[in-house]
Amino acid sequence: MPPAVETLALVKRFGSHIALADASFQVEAGEFLTLLGPSGCGKTTLLRLIAGLDRPDAGRIRLAGQDVTDQPAYRRPVHTVFQSYALFPHLNAYDNIAFGLTRQRRSPAVIRQRVEAMLALVGLEGERWRYPHELSGGQQQRVALARALACEPPVLLLDEPLAALDPRLRQRMQRELKSLQHQLGTTFIFVTHDQTEALTLSDRIAVLHNGRIVQTGPPQKLHAEPETAFVASFIGNCNLLKGEARSRQSEMATVVIAGRLAPALWRQDGAAAGQPVVIAVRPEGVQLESASGDNASGLTGRIVERLYVGADTRWTVRLPDGQTLVAALRHEPSRAWEIGALVQVSWQPAAAVIVTPDEVGDETESAADAEREELLGQGRQLE
Amino acid sequence: MSSGAGRAPLTTRGRAGWVLAAVTGAVYIYLYAPLLTLFLASLTPAPAADFEAGYVGAWYVKALSNTALLTAIQTSARVALATTVIALTLGTLAALALGKHRFRGQTWLEGLFYLPIVVPEAVVGFASVALLAQAGLPLGFWSTLLAHVAFCASYVTFIVRARLVGFDERLFEAALDLGATPTAAFWRVTLPWLTPALVGSALLCFALSLDDYVITSFVAGDGVTTFPVWLYSKMKTGVSPEINVATSLLLILSAALAALSQIVQRLQRLPRWGRLSVSVACMGLTIAAISPSPQGAGEPTLHLYIWSNYTSEKLLRDFETRYRCRVVVETYDSNETLLAKLQTGVARYDLIAPSDYLVGILAREGLLRPLDRSRLTNWQNLDPAFLNPPCDPENRYVVPYTFVVTGLGYRRDKASEPVESWDALWDARYRGRIVMLDDIRECFGAALRRRGASLNSRDEREIAQAAEDLLLQKPLVKAYDSARFEQLLLNGEVWLAQGFNGQIAKAARQNPNIAFVVPKEGGTRAVDYLAIPANAAQPALAERFMDYILEPQASAEIVQVTGYGTPNRAARAFLPPDWAGNEYVFPPESLLRRCAAIEDVGAILPRYDYYWTIIKSK
Ligand SMILES: Nc1ncnc2c1ncn2[C@@H]1O[C@H](COP(=O)(O)OP(=O)(O)O)[C@@H](O)[C@H]1O
Ligand SMILES: [Mg+2]
């Protein structure tokens, strides 16, 4: 069976700006695929190409094995839940949902039955006569979903459908979406910039960065084994440390960071000892211990910042070579260092992964910085 | 939210708030007081003298049974409806074009689009006439429509464009995504979004077209009399209750349309009642517009330009049916207006009614067309005394129509003694009870005659003396009015009126206490003629009309409608005795001998004008 959706080397330019460069991926029928990436990375552009609302500058699009690149939007068997919902303001909930069915010239009886079914599915039987501006955000979202699903499209495109909802409602809608998708067996291509949402919902995640798909895989895999620095920092907020590979035994490697040795996983082939590498370390995997001046044989650093985040404390440590890293530790009296205190830094081999540096190296740093800034903000609020 | 924010300053800054409210209230009163007065005036019960019963709304009944008014309303409705449909289509297309495509110089192009909104109407009107003349298009319904569409389309574009800016392009894409073709998406999504703006601008177009006077007065030409044009021509002859009614109707209608337009434009979408009323209104208007008008279409049209109160509706309709044509009447109230209209050359009339001294001028300027006497089969009905007058010695151009004597009308029951001299007009006992004709030569005529001078005096001293007399008289005069003097006599507002015999004769039939005299010093006499302008489109029809009027029955009818004597000798036999023997209508020869005709005074006329200006402005 051919993939439900397949894109081949899609390119889309806006003037001189390249919104999509060489985007290729496949989605199996019935799969819940998430396109994850920071805002501006080209997610919406990619969806619009699949929906047929924009035409690619290069590349092909196939739906269920059929090339639809040259078909206009209204001929493609995909429907979209728009980021802004785009509900028709002059139609009530019922007529909004019936719109696609009416376009397909289904019989009135079929339309009525389908719309009723959709209203029941999204729990809006009581709101059928309401106009969009008379509905709450969550209700509007459901109408948009019902409208897109009413024609039973084999593929549903969802562009950050939950972004505008408040966190609690968002969580509930996430569960509902997931069960709905399960129930209907529809192929979902779901766009989000929220990594938690992506990790919770997806069968598979495709991470988009600067108009390219940088890694595709199941959530756990992306979380545990990021292949690029960007994926590592975007998923799981990994620390990215520059170092040098010292030795390698199959997947286990020893790296030198700030002149000290540390273990790391090295899954990619072809790399050799002695070359500079980027090591991604998850904050939860980092351990800190008080270090007295003389027993410091491993990696050491000084505490430069302390943030209380829920049950954890996030410690920022500056290594002797100036790099910083964050460690997330449970609160414990024995781990109450002052700013400036010397600590010993270590991690389990599985907590660190050697990743491919991205072409634009400093951009990953800025992503990590942004993350830190955000946490700093939260921490200040807590203090 | 916004209302709360708006209210806050009023309550917190109490005194400032009150002042603001008071000023706002005052401005509203200032704005609406005239309109309210007008409306209330239109509701006043008609006096029992005019109608069997005086009841509120009586004037409405009277106004609405006036065929000229009804025709004007229908013409306006037609023009407005056609304007609305065309302007809406063009304006919307323009708005869509401006909205979809971006190009260099767009701002300028858009600016040009809205220019007609700010350019003075008189300029637009004049420019339109110039253009139409260049293009060789006749003035009439189509030229009016063209001009109205031009300025209305700007408004439509403006409103629709504003609405389009707020349109979320993603709605259109959502429709495509759900399987609608671009055409279907436009009809199902874009258009419904625009509907409030479309309905709103349609209402506005209708109101604008309905209200427009300035541009229409330029481009309508003769035949087409819209409601405001009719209203304005009526207003020139004084404010009557009928005009109050007509104006109130126009006011209420325009206000309602404008208000509705505003309300509708603000709606998110058109509610069900909106859609329903739109359909009902469209249907009603279309029926009204296509319903047969009182005038048939496709028949030759006679454009008659004549004094007000100078024809008989009955005769016109009879002529129309007899000769399968239409007669369109436009009226003027002074020879000077007629002359000005003919001199511009834009207006084209088939038949006019100039007074004797004007005939000479028109003939000299080549503005008249020689008559084909062979077609005037009833010529022999005329009294030879009226043939070959000095203004047209060989009767090449004119047919005498009526004769008029200017004298004094007065209320026998109010005047202290029978009036027989112009002196009465200078009698301080009648202070505030005197009305004079609003006419330079007639006023000077009275003053000159009173001192024994000639009506057509060219003597500086005599003229200066007359001017001084008129100035002295002014405090006694209630009004200078050529159109309503008999009304003022009838309702007792004045007791003494310088006036034409016809109207006073009619008034005297209503109230026997009204009398007419030709003062012993002598009065003015004039003959009004029918003539055909050189540029007439239907000269043959005009001659047919002349011949029709020369039939004794027709002339007799004219006498009874206008109150003026006829030069048609044969007509007397068809007049009832009380008309034929009416000395006011047919003053005896002895009286007529005392009267003189107004003649061109030549180079001294500016002196008259100079004094007249001073008298009128003091
Ligand atoms: N119609 C457009 N014209 C110009 N630039 C665009 C257009 N649409 C998107 N872009 C640019 O392309 C990039 C990708 O946009 P988009 O796909 O909307 O990102 P996101 O991942 O946030 O959905 C952004 O830098 C955006 O500014
Ligand atoms: Mg987006």
Present the secondary structure layout.
The complex is a heterodimer of chains A (383) and B (618).
Chain A: E1 5-14, E2 17-27, E3 32-36, H1 43-51, E4 58-63, E5 66-67, E6 78-81, H2 93-103, H3 108-121, H4 137-149, E7 155-159, H5 167-184, E8 187-192, H6 195-201, E9 204-209, E10 212-217, H7 219-224, H8 229-234, E11 239-249, E12 252-257, E13 260-265, E14 276-281, E15 286-290, E16 299-309, E17 312-318, E18 324-330, E19 342-347, E20 352-355, H9 361-382
Parallel strand pairs in A: 3-8, 3-9, 6-7, 7-8
Antiparallel strand pairs in A: 1-2, 1-4, 4-5, 9-10, 11-12, 11-14, 12-13, 14-20, 15-19, 16-17, 16-19, 17-18
Helix pairs in contact in A: 2-3, 2-4, 3-4
Chain B: H1 2-12, H2 14-43, H3 58-64, H4 67-100, H5 106-118, H6 121-135, H7 141-165, H8 169-177, H9 182-211, H10 214-219, H11 227-235, H12 241-266, H13 272-290, E1 301-307, H14 313-323, E2 326-332, H15 335-344, E3 351-352, H16 356-364, E4 398-411, E5 434-436, H17 440-450, H18 460-473, E6 477-480, H19 485-490, E7 496-500, H20 501-510, E8 514-517, E9 524-531, H21 539-549, H22 552-562, H23 577-580, H24 589-594, E10 596-597, H25 605-617
Bound molecules: adenosine-5'-diphosphate and magnesium ion.
